[in-house]
Amino acid sequence: LIIYGLVIPQNMINQAKENINQNQLSEALLIVNNLIARQPNNNNAINTKVEIAQQYFDQDSYEESITIINDILNSPPPNEAALDLKYKIALKHYEIGQYPLAKSIFNEIQEYKDSSQQILNCNYQLALDFLEKNDFESAIEILQESTTYPEAQSLLLETQYKYGQQLCDDNQNDKGINV
After folding, report:
1. Residue 89 and residue 101: Cα distance in Å, rounded?
2. Comparing 81 with 174, which gets the higher pLDDT?
3. Could you tell me if 142 and 123 are in contact, meaning their C-beta atoms sit under 8 angstroms apart?
4. Which of 68, 71, 114, 159 has fewest C-beta within 10 Å?
5. In this structure, are residues 101 and 93 in contact, taking their beta carbons and an 8 Å threshold?
6. Which pTM value belongs to this model?
């Protein structure tokens, strides 16, 4: 029992870390998942799994990283390092202009750090993208979700005015008056 309880799990962690150092991430993940299946509350194994997700993140393999993070977060108790990495992934998607994906991830972790504010930032950027395409209706719809974001509210009023003008100019007066 002592060997199974202490030595073998530590050997598995050591092997996983060696695989991580050799960039054999999928092999490391198999070892860690095997250990977690036997010992779900093994913090060393969970932290090693977070380390694997971090390596994928550092290699710009965000999908692999988010899959691992979601797996960790779906198993109680919540892991702070996993939440933080998921937040970083959402920020990275925001930075490269993938606003819908960033918003989706921030929605999953709304209570973490300033994720709620980041959702508003995503909405604002998405609205600007819609306006670039003259998609006034989509821009208005998303800006209406951001009632606590002052810049979004002023953009909403401006967009509603422009859309109303456009509808009136296109002889859709009834619709333009209601915007």
Report:
1. 10
2. 81
3. yes
4. 114
5. yes
6. 0.74
